[in-house]
Each structure stands twice: as C-alpha cells, then as structure tokens.
C-alpha cells in the first residue's frame, strides 16, 4: 500500500459527504481513466473530508510493461504545472494520500473556507504520454456554520427573536445545540430555527456530535438601533500597498435610564475561544494597522499589505450597557494579490527566447501604466498595455510594475539557474532501501524537471518530476544521474550525481581451471567470484568445514586423488554472505591392486572360493585374473572376482590380477591358493620286484596324494596291532610265514584311504612266480572293474579263477628257498 502524509497524526471527523452519481472520465486511450466516486462533496469548516477515486491504465504498450511512477492530487497549477498538495504550503500538515490496488483516497483535515476548490487526481507512468489527469475532478465546497437572526422584536426590557443555525453542508437529521456567551442555553432542537425570549448577549449554535465546531456568534440586543455600516464590503489591494476600510456605527443613546457610552472599538478577522482578537494585538499586523474615528465615522488603515492579509474584516464596539457589544455582521472582504509577470507564449531561438509576457493582477488601479525591468533596471518603454513582446536572454531576469507603485514590482521571471541535486538518505545507499534523488533550481516560472541516467553515450530519460524515487533500490540502479531544469526562458543541466548502491554478495560463481578431466598430479585452480558492493571477501572450505584459504582462488599445485570431493566458497561483506558448492573428481591410474580370498581360512577341496581384486582408480578399473603357468601365464577371466564354485586340488597355485583404466595399468602381487584335500587311494610297491630269496629283506612302500601330507600305517590281516608306521615297511629275513594280506592306511585331517597288498612266499619255477605276481595284480584290477560294467566283471572273474588255479599249482611246486612277491593296489 502506498501511503503519503504531510503530518504524522490526525483525527478524522466527517461532518457531511454528499453523494452524487459516479462519473467515469476517459482521457486519451480507452484504457486510461480516472473514476471519482463523487464529483460534488461538501464539508463544514474545521471538519475532515475524504475524496475517493480509482484509476486504470494499459498493462503493456509496445511490449513495454507499464509501471506507475508517481501519483498526486492538486487544485491549481503554477506555470501550467500541477502543484502537489503535499508540497502546497496552504495544506501543510492537513493532507494524506492512501493508494492500494489502484484505489486512492485524498483526506483533508481541519477544513478551511479557502479549501473550496476543484480537486483532480494525476498519475504518471513510464510510457510515452505518461501523464494522465482525471477530469473534471471533484468540487469541494467548504462552508461554516452560521447563526442568523431571522427577526427580532423588542419588548420593554427584552427582545423576542427568531434565530436559525444554517449551513449548506449539514449532516442528515442533525440535532442543534444553542449557546449564549459560550454557555448552553435553551433546549436542543431538531429544527435549525428557534424562537425565544432573548437577553442581550452573544449567541451561537453547533451540531450535536460536532460541538468543537460552533458557528460564529451574533449579538442580539433589546433594541433595533444598533448598527455598523461599511462603505464597501469588497476591496482589494496589491501586495505591499496600503488600503483603507471605512465605516460608521450607531447605538441607542440611552437604555434602562443609562446613557450609553462607547468603551472600546476594535477590528478583527479571527477569534480565540469565541472572542475576537483585536488587530492591534494580533502579531500578524504589528506596526501595520491604524484606527481613526471621528463622530462615529471610522477608518481602518492597513499598510504593507501581505497575501495572508486576505480575509473578512469586522468591526465591533463595546458600550457600558449590559451585554452592550455589537459586531457589524457581513464585514469587509479584503483580497490581496501580487503583481505577476506571466509568460503568454514563447519560442526558443538559439541562445535566447522570443516571448510575449503580461503584467497582471486581479487588483489593478484604473487606467494603469506599466513599467518593465531587466535585471532590476528599466528597459523598453512604458506601456498602457499589460502585454509586451521581446527577445529574452536566458541569463537575465525580467519584472514589471504599475506606475505609481514602482516600489512593488512583480517577482522577476528568469530561466533556471544551475540545478542542484541531492540524495536522501545521504548516508550509504543499501540495496532494498528507499532512495530519493531531488533536483531543484531557482527559476520563475517554476522549472519542469527531467531525470537522465547516463548509459554510455546514450543518456535515457527515466523520470520527469523534481524527485526521482526508488522505492526499493537495486544494484542495477547504480550509475550516474543528472537532471535538467527548463522553463519558457531556457534550460540548465546539473552536474552528475553518482549513485553507488551497496549490496550483499550475490550467489557466488565457482569454477575450476581445467573444465575437462582433472588428472592426478596436474595443477588445478578453484576460482570464486561474486557481484558485491563493497567488494566481497572470499573463503574456501572443504565440505566438512575445514578451512582451505581466504583468497578468491585456491590452488592445487599437484592434485591428488584424495583431493576429490565437494568444496564451497563464501563471499561476504558487511551486508551479508552467500555460499556456493563445487565438486572435484580427480582422475588417476589404478593404484597397486589388492587381492583377497574368501573364505580366508583353510581352503578345502569342493568348497566355494572367491578371489577378489580391488584397486583405487578413477575412472573405475577393469580387472583381469591370471594363473602362473609358465610364460605366458594363463588368463582366466576379465572380472573383478574369480569364483571357484567347487574348487579342486588342481586349482591350487599362484594367482594375480591386473587393474587397468585409460590412465594406466597395475599388476597385483601373487596370491597363493593352497587346496586341502583327503588322501587319494594309496599305491603300494615291493622292492625288490623280482625273485626274492628266503632270508632276504623285502621293502614295502605306500604313497598317496594328500594335502596336508598323509601319515601312513601298515597292517596285516587278522592282526590287531599295526605292523609299522610310516610310508615304508621293511621285512628282514623273509620267511614263508610272512605270506598273507597286508594293507596300508593313508590319513590326514581331511580323511583316510586304504590299500591292500597280498604277499606270497612260494618255491618253484620262475613262471609260477610270475603267475603269482599276475594274480596279485588282478585282484585290484577286479576291484576297479566292479565300478565299470557287469560284462567286464564276468570276464575278470573267469580270468581270476584261472589265475587262482595256476597260483595253487605253483604253491605246490615251490620250494621253501624261493619266494616271489607281488603287490596290488585295491581301493579300500
């Protein structure tokens, strides 16, 4: 809501508002208008009135959004320019503007009779032809409450009188209060008229609810021969001159057997506490008034007239009779005007102006002669015409006077002087605050002002009022401004005014020197910048809040992979601070890969085993697994993990992996895989393997593939105690009773396996020994065939029977000195 007031406080008292038809006035384009709620309103003197209007305008013209720069109310113009009521001295402290959503209200308090006028609303936009005034305006009529004596009838010592309390602007259904000498008298009435017996005294009236605004008083006497007669009720005078007001007065020579005598006479224009103020004691007239009376014929003389002397003057005389004061009712209206030099038309010509001027006043003497002045010296010839045409220089001033009144020339007219510019507030200008630039120049007629902003070589008109107001100034409003003051006699341009708007930092712009990939080891610069006034101070932080530096730039001379992450900078000045983040992703070749195995405990054949290769790399590495297998090694898989769903003993060995990206390749150290498994079926052997002579030594050997290595135990069938421990079992001095079934057991933490050996001591031919050996070989072969096929089993059985028979025959023929041994492996 926009709110303008000429005073900080006021009391709204509305006595009367007359309502008329709403009038819509369209000016210029059809979508620019000012609509007044009422075009005729009235108010009683010293009360308050409100004048309402709405205004509309096109939201956009030629793709330019319309904004309202200024609104004002005015009643009169000066040199064709409206005078804003807020700056009009007649209304100081008595007017208030309120505007919201294009609805505006003008409030005028402490109404005065001279406030009667036509009030108009004007708004100014940023568009061409931007000024628009609502016509015809609102006519305000201000009247005072009057106490009028309709008739009076003297009756011996008293008088019957009919009085009337009246105004052209009364509220609806008023109630009237009556006063005598300032005190309530009679009863309240709803009729403005009252008839009653009256005693001599000052009578007045008021409207109930508005007792603070009573009427002027009238003197009611008991006889009809009290009278004041003015020679003229309307006179005028030029400012600085002298006027005389003449009058006569009469009164009854005797009342109540008392001879009447006049004790005092006085003139007044205003009252105080319902009592007239004698001009001789009024400070506004000190040394300027004189009374002269002779034979009840009197003269009031006022010298050195001033504009504020314009008023209604009344004469009062006071006698020795009870209530014996009397005031001339109508009084004399004095109008004081000054002589004015008015520019009728002008035409600019290079360094001068050709103009027609007029010397005028509403109170000129008869058949005046006019005198013309240039820079205070007479120029041109005297004329009987109030108009004159000539060439006027912008550096000179001109005035006029009426012959015989040369001491009271008109105010001079002249071109604007060098404009002065000022800024409010005069302290630092902070973004968002309200700032007003004011341009002023001594000129008559008053200058029109135009504001410019310098943008390169193309200054732009931005405002056409004495004041350029920024309701909420922005940093973009910084710059150099100047104003131009112009009237009909010339124009002058002010010096430049720099508007330096202080503002807190904007959101910082953060950047990295290498916008492509950031490679480990390279030099990288982080830069922080922010629009701020005063200039911002910068601080760089890591995301965790660790301080990095207090410069606009932070430099990594040789950036490392560990420097990857999120950083932010703050830009701060005395008005505030802002922050912004940036992420850094440092690219680097793979680090030395690490390899691991899961599970990390002992690896058992048949279990699931996973080898994992990992390396810190950016971009992420691609992995390949190898197994040492000579040169070249065996490439297994191009994945980060090498998985054995059921590992075998043959998978044991040395493994390694490579990690590779576009920046490089690294190879891990070897990872040794040790697969534990139970012993395989043992194999047994006999030494010597040919004919063994009785009494010789025989060595039996058992071996089995196992991890961890197997422990061996030798047993002989049908004997409870082991024969031997260890991989080898030696029989010294072999004899026939050593014949029989032997077996060895291979055992580790993962399991055990057995193998059987049949030892035969025989005598006879060597071929029989060979046959015995063949038989011993067929036994394990027979066991193996059990797992192959039934047909093969049958064949093996036949062969076994034949072999068995041959062996039996060999036993019978063998001698005790010859022994033949053969071993055979059988699956336990």
Distance between the termini: 107 Å
Q: What gyration radius follows from the Cα positions, in whole Å?
A: 64 Å
Derived from helix and strand composition plus strand pairing, the structural class reads mainly beta
Mean pLDDT: 81
Low-confidence stretches: 1-30, 764-778, 781-828
Shape: elongated
Plain-language structure description:
The protein has 828 residues and is mainly beta. The protein folds into eight domains: 2-143, Immunoglobulin-like (Sandwich); 148-223, Immunoglobulin-like; 225-337, Immunoglobulins (Immunoglobulin-like, Sandwich), CATH 2.60.40; 339-414, Immunoglobulin-like (Sandwich), CATH 2.60.40.10; 420-473 and 482-490, no CATH class; 509-583, Immunoglobulin-like; 594-676, Immunoglobulin-like (Sandwich); 683-821, Sandwich (Immunoglobulin-like). The strands form 23 sheets. A six-stranded antiparallel sheet has the order 1-11-12-5-3-2, with no helix packed on it. Residues 1-30, 764-778 and 781-828 have low confidence and may be disordered. Helix 1 (766-785) packs antiparallel against helix 2. The protein contains two helices and 80 strands.
Task: Provide key terms for this protein.
828 residues; mainly beta; Immunoglobulin-like; 8 domains; 6-stranded antiparallel beta sheet; 80 strands
Blueprint (SSEs and pairs):
Blueprint: E1 2-5, E2 23-26, E3 33-36, E4 40-44, E5 49-56, E6 60-61, E7 64-65, E8 68-74, E9 77-78, E10 81-82, E11 95-100, E12 103-108, E13 117-125, E14 131-133, E15 138-143, E16 146-155, E17 158-166, E18 176-180, E19 183-184, E20 193-198, E21 201-207, E22 218-220, E23 227-230, E24 234-238, E25 243-250, E26 254-255, E27 258-259, E28 262-268, E29 271-272, E30 275-276, E31 289-294, E32 297-302, E33 311-319, E34 325-327, E35 332-337, E36 340-349, E37 352-360, E38 370-374, E39 377-378, E40 387-393, E41 397-402, E42 413-414, E43 420-424, E44 429-430, E45 435-440, E46 448-453, E47 460-463, E48 467-470, E49 479-487, E50 490-493, E51 497-499, E52 501-502, E53 509-512, E54 518-519, E55 524-529, E56 537-542, E57 547-549, E58 553-556, E59 565-573, E60 576-584, E61 586-587, E62 594-598, E63 603-604, E64 609-614, E65 622-627, E66 634-637, E67 641-644, E68 653-661, E69 664-667, E70 671-673, E71 675-676, E72 683-687, E73 692-693, E74 698-703, E75 711-716, E76 724-725, E77 728-731, E78 740-748, E79 751-760, H1 766-785, ...
Helix pairs in contact: 1-2
């Amino acid at each position: 809501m926009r709110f303008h007031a000429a005073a900080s406080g006021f009391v709204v008292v509305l006595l009367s508002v007359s309502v008329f038809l709403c009038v819509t006035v369209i000016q210029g384009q059809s979508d620019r208008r000012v609509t007044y709620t009422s075009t005729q309103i009235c108010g009683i003197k010293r009360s308050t009135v409100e004048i309402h209007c709405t205004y509309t305008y096109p939201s956009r013209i030629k793709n330019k959004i319309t904004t309202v720069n200024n609104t004002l109310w005015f009643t009169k113009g000066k040199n064709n320019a409206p005078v804003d009521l807020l700056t009009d001295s007649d209304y100081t402290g008595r007017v208030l503007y309120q505007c919201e959503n294009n609805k505006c209200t003008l409030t005028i308090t402490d109404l005065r009779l001279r406030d009667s006028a036509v009030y108009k609303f004007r708004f100014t936009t940023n568009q061409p032809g931007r000024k628009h005034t609502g016509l015809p305006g609102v006519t305000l009529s201000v009247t005072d409450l009057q106490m009028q004596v309709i008739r009076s009838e003297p009756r011996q010592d008293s008088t019957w009188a009919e009085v009337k309390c009246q105004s052209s602007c009364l509220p609806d259904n008023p109630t009237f209060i009556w006063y005598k000498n300032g005190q309530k008298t009679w009863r309240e009435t709803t009729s403005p008229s009252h008839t009653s017996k009256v005693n001599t005294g000052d009578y007045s009236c008021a409207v109930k609810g508005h007792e603070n605004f009573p009427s002027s008083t009238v003197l009611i006497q008991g006889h009809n021969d009290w009278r004041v007669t003015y020679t003229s009720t309307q006179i005028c005078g030029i400012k600085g001159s002298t006027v005389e007001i003449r009058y006569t007065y009469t009164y009854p020579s005797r009342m109540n057997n008392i001879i009447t005598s006049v004790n005092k006479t006085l003139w007044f224009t205003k009252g105080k506490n319902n009592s007239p103020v004698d001009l001789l004691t009024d400070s506004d007239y000190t040394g300027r008034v004189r009374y002269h009376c002779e034979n009840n014929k009197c003269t009031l003389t006022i010298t050195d007239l001033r504009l504020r002397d314009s008023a209604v003057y009344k004469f009062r005389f006071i006698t020795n009779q009870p209530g014996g004061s009397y005031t001339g009712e109508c009084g004399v209206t004095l109008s004081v005007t000054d002589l004015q030099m008015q520019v009728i038309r002008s035409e600019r010509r290079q360094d001068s102006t050709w103009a027609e001027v007029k010397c005028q006043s509403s109170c000129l003497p008869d058949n005046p002669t006019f005198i013309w002045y240039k820079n205070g010296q007479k120029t041109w010839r005297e004329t009987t015409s109030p108009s004159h045409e000539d060439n006027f220089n912008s550096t000179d001033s001109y005035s006029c006077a009426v012959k015989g009144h040369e001491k009271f020339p008109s105010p001079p007219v002249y071109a604007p002087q060098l404009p002065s510019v000022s800024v409010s507030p005069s302290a630092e200008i902070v973004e968002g605050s309200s700032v007003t630039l004011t341009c002023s120049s001594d000129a008559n007629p008053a200058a029109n002002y135009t504001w410019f902003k310098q943008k390169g070589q193309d200054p732009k008109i931005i405002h056409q009022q004495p004041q350029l107001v920024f309701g909420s100034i922005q940093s973009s409003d910084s710059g150099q401004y100047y104003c131009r003051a112009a009237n009909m006699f010339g124009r002058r341009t002010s010096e430049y005014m720099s508007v330096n708007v202080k503002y807190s930092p904007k959101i910082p712009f953060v950047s990295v020197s290498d916008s492509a990939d950031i490679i480990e080891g390279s030099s990288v610069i982080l830069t922080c910048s922010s629009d701020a006034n005063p200039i911002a101070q910068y601080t760089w932080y890591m995301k965790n809040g660790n301080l990095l530096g207090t410069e606009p730039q932070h430099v990594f001379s040789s950036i490392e992979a560990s420097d990857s992450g999120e950083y932010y900078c703050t830009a701060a000045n005395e008005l505030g601070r802002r922050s912004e983040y940036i992420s850094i992703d440092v690219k680097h070749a793979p680090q030395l890969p690490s390899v691991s195995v899961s599970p990390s405990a002992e690896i058992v054949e048949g279990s699931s085993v996973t080898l994992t290769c990992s390396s810190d790399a950016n971009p992420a590495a691609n992995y390949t697994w190898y197994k040492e297998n000579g040169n070249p090694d065996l490439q297994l898989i191009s994945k980060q993990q090498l998985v054995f769903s059921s590992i075998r003993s043959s998978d044991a060995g040395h493994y390694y992996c490579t990690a590779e990206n576009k920046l490089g390749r690294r190879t891990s150290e070897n990872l040794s895989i040790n697969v534990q498994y139970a012993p395989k079926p043992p194999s047994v052997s006999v030494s010597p393997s040919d004919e063994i002579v009785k009494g010789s030594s025989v060595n039996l050997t058992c071996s089995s593939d196992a991890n961890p290595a197997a422990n061996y135990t030798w047993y002989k069938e049908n004997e409870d105690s082991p024969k031997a421990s260890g991989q080898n079992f030696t029989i010294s001095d072999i004899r026939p009773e050593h014949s029989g079934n032997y077996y060895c057991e291979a055992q580790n933490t993962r399991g055990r396996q057995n193998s059987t050996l049949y030892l035969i001591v025989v005598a006879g031919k060597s071929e029989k020994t060979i046959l015995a050996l063949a038989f011993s070989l067929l036994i394990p072969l027979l066991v193996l065939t059990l797992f192959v096929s039934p047909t093969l089993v049958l064949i093996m059985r036949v062969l076994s029977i034949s072999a068995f028979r041959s062996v039996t025959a060999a036993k019978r023929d063998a001698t005790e000195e010859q022994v033949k041994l053969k071993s055979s492996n059988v699956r336990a």
